[in-house]
Amino acid sequence: MLHFILLMFLGIAAIANAHGGTPVIVPDTMTERVRACTICHSAEGKAGRDAYYPRIAGKPHRYLFNQLRNFRDARRYYQPMAILLENMSDEYLLEIAQYFSSLQLPYPAPEQIDMQPEEIKLAERLVYSGKPEQDIPACSTCHGDSLMGMEPAIPGLLGLSRAYITAQLSGWRNGGIMRSQTSDCMSDIAQQLTDEEVNAVAKWLASHVVSGESSSLDVLSPELAHRCRQNIQENGGAQ
Ligand code: HEC
Ligand code: HEC
Predict the structure, then answer these.
(1) CA distance 210 to 159
(2) Cβ neighbours of 90 (radius 10 Å)
(3) Chain-centre distance for alpha carbon 50
């Protein structure tokens, strides 16, 4: 069904182009431009029906921009989006990123997930202390004390589904099947996590209530800013 809708959308775009001399008037508002996106990311920019489609509303704009370029340029893999983004310029992607970033919408209720006390302990240790013995800083040092991210380039970790978080961490661990192959701070960390740790931290994050605000990259230590330079610098790690 979804593919059918997408084909319809692309088909309409093609007909509009084929018209040549007779202009087909489609109002160029942002709502029109992002209609193809909201099929999956839902009109309000929340997560869609399927828990796997991530919410993109309100995420830091440079982070969204970098991801859009990653999908377009095959550094992050998801075919339906790659097709949609294929011919879009950086300027256009930046506008789309700014649009979604500016949407402020209520978050869905956290997932109800049963966790064993040991799992909770394991997750909290990763989130708030990290694993110094493996040079893994606490998730909160980069994702912010409230885990709501750092503007404009580090995404928050709350308000995401367990399925999505697990898929992202696994994507990095499996040698970048879904996320960038290039080595960056987050892929280095994810590759060192065990199955047990991924499972515990994904459950813990998805069942946590969203509260607090995102912070700013200014609070990131120079050492970590250097480690994450590919993700946070202005040109988004373009190679
Ligand atoms: C067919 C469904 C579908 C369509 C259409 C679609 N997306 Fe996505 N989008 C996804 C899925 C699924 C993912 C997660 C992919 C992954 O795991 O890497 C995603 C990921 C993203 C991300 C990364 C989110 C994050 O937190 O890292 C952004 C940004 C995004 N989409 C924006 C868009 C925009 C803008 C459009 C329209 C031009 C669009 N998407 C169209 C399904 C879709
Ligand atoms: C050294 C800094 C740093 C630390 C520590 C860190 N992260 Fe990240 N994380 C990042 C950056 C930067 C990104 C954005 C990656 C990109 O641009 O593709 C990210 C992205 C993510 C994403 C993707 C979110 C989305 O919307 O798609 C997840 C999930 C994630 N991190 C989980 C974790 C977890 C769990 C921990 C702790 C075990 C952690 N991170 C620790 C820097 C860090």
Answers:
(1) 6
(2) 14
(3) 15
